[in-house]
Amino acid sequence: MDLEAIYANVERRDIERTTGPQTQSHGQDEGKDLKRRGSRCLVLITVGLGLICVLLLVFIILLHISITAERDLIKSYKNTVEEFNQTINSLHDNHTDLTQKNLELETRVASLSEGLKKEAIKRGWFFLSTKLSWSDSRQYCRDRGADLVIINTEEKQRVISSLVSERVWIGLSDREQEGNMKWVDNSPLKQGFWLKGEPNNHNNEDCIELNYNRRLPGWSTLNNWNDLPCFEKKRGICEK
Q: Which key words tag this protein in UniProt (predicted)?
């Protein structure tokens, strides 16, 4: 073997001794870096999956709350509809009952009215067909064999009050002497059925009416007389 070959082998061995450990150390460092990067990726993936799980859990909770609220709302709506239907049915039943009672009342009123008319005819009472002064009303009655009605009992007062539906003249006045009430047959007034505060002789009121207005203070079937000027025109009640 020549010297050049020996020098070449020696140089190669020196190079191998010098570079071998460095290459091995560098490879080990790269492996550690890869492991660290892998660990970081794994941590990031784990954290990401954890966040996704949390978000899914929140979504599921919110969805459950929303579904529960909608279910409660639907249930409340159904209950409201049922209550509304029950109210309508109750109102319908009440309307039916009221209609029936109204028909019964109308029948009773018609029967009572018919009975009162028969009673009036039986007692010889009739109403003027037109409105006249007190004197003309009396003359109307006298021309037909009657006179303005005399009311001298509570029973008669109640019946006549039930018959009238407007203000009417009766056969009572104090035209001859103020404050001295007399009936058309010249008999004195023994019992009066006056409205509260009447008679008051306001504006020379000498003739008496029966006032049917039930809204007047103190009005009743036994308290509805009022004095008026005799020239006012009203219907009257005649009595044979």
A: Coiled coil, Lectin, Membrane, Transmembrane, Transmembrane helix
